[in-house]
Amino acid sequence: MAIPKAPVKRTIQEAGAERVSADAVDALTEHIEEYMEELSKRAIVYAKYAKRKTVKAEDIALAIDSSAPIEAPEDEKHDMFSMIKNVFEGASEGKGFEEIMGSFMKMNK
């Protein structure tokens, strides 16, 4: 993958940097490429779960949401039973995969 470096440098400058080294542009470009590849892989998984070959914007959104760190509840215990119950209830109500996963992601924020 090859992201053009000029927009990366321009973005750093627009963020307030007076000068930007080539090493800084290279480092950020590499990080962006790795992040994009990881998000793409996650989005493909969501599309496959939804029985689609086409990756949609909603798959990208789910991939972005799922890449955020999940904080444990204050008591540091996850109620796995409640999460599984919510998935089954959503499926029995006719909700699609994207809707169930979307509500799951919101529940964990």
Automatic annotation (TrEMBL):
Instruction: Specify the superkingdom.
Output: Archaea
**UniProt entry keywords in alphabetical sequence:** Chromosome, Cytoplasm, DNA-binding
- Recall the GO molecular function terms of this protein's record: DNA binding; protein heterodimerization activity
InterPro entries, A to Z: Archaeal_histone_HMF, CBFA_NFYB_domain, Histone-fold, HmfB-like
Q: Which residues are in the Transcription factor CBF/NF-Y/archaeal histone domain?
A: 2-64
| Annotated compartments | Chromosome; Cytoplasm
The family note in this entry says: Belongs to the archaeal histone HMF family.
Q: What is this protein called?
A: Histone family protein
Higher taxonomy: Archaea, Methanobacteriati, Methanobacteriota, Methanomada group, Methanobacteria
